[in-house]
Amino acid sequence: MKNLKINNRFTNELPADTNETNEVRQVSNAVFSFVNPTTPSSPKLIHASEEVAKLVGITEDEIHSESFLNVFSGKEVLPHTRPYAICYAGHQFGNWAGQLGDGRAINLTEVEHDDAFFTLQLKGAGKTPYSRTADGLAVLRSSVREYLCAEAMHYLGVPTTRSLSLMLSGDQVLRDILYNGNPAYEKGAIVCRVAPSFIRFGSFEMLTARNELKNLKQFVEYNIKYYFPEIKGEPKEQYLQFFQKVVDTTREMIVHWQRVGFVHGVMNTDNMSIHGITIDYGPYGWLENYDPNWTPNTTDSQNRRYRFGNQPQIAQWNLYQLANAIYPLINEAEPLEKILASFITDYDSDYKTMFLNKLGLFTSTESDSKLIADLEATLQLSETDMTLFFRNLSKVKKEDSANKALEIIQDAFYLPEEITGEILDFWTKWFTIYIERLNAENLSDESRSQKMNLVNPKYVLRNYMSQLAIDTADQGDYSLINELYLLLQKPYDEQPEFEKWFAKRPDWARSKVGCSMLSCSS
Ligand code: AMP
Ligand code: MG
User: Fold this and answer.
1) What is residue 133's predicted lDDT score, i.e. its pLDDT?
2) Residue 504 pLDDT
3) Where does the chain bind Mg(2+) (predicted)?
4) Is there a single domain that holds both residue 48 and residue 26?
5) Residues 6+ apart with CB under 8 A from 450
6) How many domains, the chain?
7) Is 214 a member of any domain?
8) Long-range Cβ contact pairs of 314-318 (< 8 A, separation 24 or more)
């Protein structure tokens, strides 16, 4: 891979752990530890993204080279690089969890290409000092889910880490999927992901918890210098601007999640990127029937902390933890509190604009908040598929009656026989007002429909679609991974050849493990 331009800013400039073994331990006075990936027994490439390869400086031919296979499975370390695991802490499900760190992620190197910088990171390449009691490995099931979803999100326009490659390790990994005492062997896999960096809120929390304020200052300044170079001014002013940037990008990311119906599932502070990109695809899921209370994560089924409708509040809570972490550099609560408070007001305003755009409304009137709230409530009266509803809504015309509009979106109902009586009345009332509202906008049906189709995807990675791809991949057939990869590269296009994926969740998937229920076991 002759064009890979290695430029390790992170390990060159930040304090390293002096212990270089893989022994599990509490680390101090360092933001990372040097580690070596575990050698996989017989790696095999399942899929690689040509686009991501190109982004980092790898050619199409090189993807099929032995060197690519070896480097991105962890078998070989690139010359002039030293892989490392980052030390971070975190709040998990609202509780302080202390040191966590890259337990099964290993950063290979940073590269520079076309004036952009990327970190290449393996997930599932073996133990690190942060593996705690686990094995540092990942199974095929969760790797397929991460690989496909990150790319699907990118093409949907949602800020995210990218996926470069998906490989089998050739080794078996023991997992108890449902944590019910039934462990079984599964195929091991390794994903190489790509991002500007994999720095999480938890890194800042770690330094503050250990009271390493000099390291904290150096780390914040490192982040500003490389990731927010536009920030200028007095040190304190810079730290506040840095916080404001993270708040802004995080807010933008959450608005996108709510737009496409993505539920992260594990919004712990160690899974929050400093770049406001979606990171760590674990037990995530996609809303099928619109339900703000839904969470795919069985580990969280009691409290539903990370349910769809709670994601903005949790993002703010996580940002509050980041504010606490950098507070010792600022020593003034008020400016941080002000930025935190603005998160929800700014979010509400962005959410409203986003939702109106989904409805094909590009101006805003006073009654629009009610129009949105009424729709959110009506969508929940009887199971209604979010993706089908919004995509088909673009076919409603100004001259249509409420009845006609209902006919247009009827495919979105999981139980059409329920759309009678009061429920039908609610729908008729909502559509009557909606159509009036369309008529007040100065936009032709055709232009509106085109604009709506740019924000309402036709294809998302429904939970059952990943599961089908996993089941076939487990049999050694990767055609479905290839098909979904192609499909999801153009989520807003009609793609009639893929029409079968523009459909409600099939009945068999309603409560199947992997489709609507996922645990953290991966
Ligand atoms: P997650 O919930 O996947 O974000 O992981 C939380 C923490 O557990 C992180 O520090 C991970 O690195 C670690 N972890 C998760 N799975 C494993 C594993 N199989 N081996 C080692 N560490 C893991
Ligand atoms: Mg994580």
Assistant:
1) 94
2) 96
3) 271, 280
4) yes
5) none
6) 4
7) no
8) 314/267, 315/250, 315/251, 315/253, 315/254, 315/267, 315/272, 315/343, 316/340, 316/343, 316/344, 316/347, 317/94, 318/91, 318/201, 318/250, 318/267, 318/268, 318/269, 318/272
Q: Any catalytic annotation for residue 471?
A: no
Place of tokens 């499900």: 93
- Both 159 and 250 in one domain: the answer is no
Report the alpha-carbon distance of residue 519 to residue 513 in Å, rounded: 9
Surrounding ion ligand 2 within 5 Å at CB are: 271, 280
C-alpha to C-alpha distances, 13 to 10, 87, 219, 221, 299, nearest whole angstrom: 6, 15, 9, 11, 38
Burial class (CB in 10 A: 0-12, 13-18, 19+), 377: exposed
Which tokens belong to 31?
């933001």
In short, whether 206's Cβ falls inside 6 Å of ligand 1 is: no
Ligand located closest to 206 CA: 1
DSSP annotation of 295: -
Is 400 marked as binding a ligand? no
Residue 103 annotated as binding site: yes
**Over the stretch 282-322, which tens digit does the pLDDT of each residue have?**
999 999 999 999 999 989 989 999 999 999 999 999 999 99
pLDDT at 93: 96
Same domain (yes/no): 241, 384: no
> Is 427 within the bounds of a domain?
yes
- Write out the residue range of the structural domain in which residue 486 sits: 463-509
If asked whether residues 99 and 28 sit together in one domain, one would say: yes
Measured in Å, residue 86 CA sits from the centre of ligand 2 at 12
Residues 55-103: tens digit of each pLDDT: 999 999 999 999 999 999 999 999 999 999 999 999 999 999 999 999 9
Token duo for residue 442: 């100065």
Q: Mark whether 246 and 286 lie in a shared domain.
A: yes
| Phi/psi at 184 (5° precision) | -145, 155
100 lines ligand 1 (CB under 6 A): yes
Find out whether the beta carbon of 32 lies less than 6 Å from any atom of ligand 1.
no
CA 99–ligand 2 middle distance (angstroms): 12
- Per-residue pLDDT reduced to its tens digit, 222-243: 999 999 999 999 999 999 999 9
Structure tokens at 426: 């609610």
Q: Tens digit of pLDDT for each residue in 492-522? A: 999 999 999 999 999 999 888 888 888 888 8
Tell me the residue type at 487: L
Sign of CA dihedral 219, 224, 226, 228: positive
Q: Does 515 fall in a domain?
A: no
247 Cα: distance to centroid of ligand 1 (angstroms): 25
Per residue, the 3-state secondary structure of 452-474, as one string, reads HCCCCCCCCCCHHHHHHHHHHHH
Q: Is 181 annotated as a binding residue?
A: no
Same domain, yes or no: 170 and 62? yes
Q: Per-residue pLDDT tens for 46-59?
A: 999 999 999 999 99
User: Does any domain span residue 310?
Assistant: yes
Q: Are residues 267 and 287 in the same domain?
A: yes
* Domain-ending residue, one of 410, 426, 452: 452
